[in-house]
Amino acid sequence: MRLAVFASGNGSNFEALVHSVHEGVIDGKIALLVSDQPDAYVLTRAKKLNVPSVAFTPKAFESKAAYEKEVLDHLKEAKVDLIVLAGYMRIVGKTLLQAFPERIINIHPSLLPNYPGRQGILDAFMDKAEQTGVTVHLVDEGVDTGPILAQETVAIEEHDTIDSLERKIHALEHELFPKAIQKVIKELQKEHVK
Ligand code: GRF
Q: Whose CA is nearest to atom 14 of ligand 1?
């Protein structure tokens, strides 16, 4: 199974996924890193970890479809089977959704459907929620919607600050995401054998 990881920023989840492949938690290969931010730190990580990468400036394209068509060409060339969004701050359009039906997975730092959007951790913290968490789900045309594959809770304790909460959430993400991806891979492999 050949994976492409899409990321826009820091890339700690990307790095955790690469390690999970090395450790055998994920039975696959990270064939490509795709970023929509040419200056993102995740590109430096990819270089260090010897993962091929491509970066785009979506604004330079005449439409979202044109941008995604270009991305798709790279995915085809890398023979990608499954797309993993790990901090990809962009809504996936029809072009990619139709090319990878039920084969795009996202991670979100809250207990969806609570606190979707760009700042799931901060929103739960500011709301003084007692708990929040991490969700892995299949991507559809909505924002942080789509069938849930895995979900785990993180307590927001009295002494927590936004920083300590972020640390707890990211640590859980790095654990949960590889396991959830491996589950999907297993299912796809079963289908393939049928
Ligand atoms: C993670 O919290 C993820 O859930 C969200 O974006 C963040 C990416 O973090 N979608 P990183 O770039 O992997 O460190």
A: 12
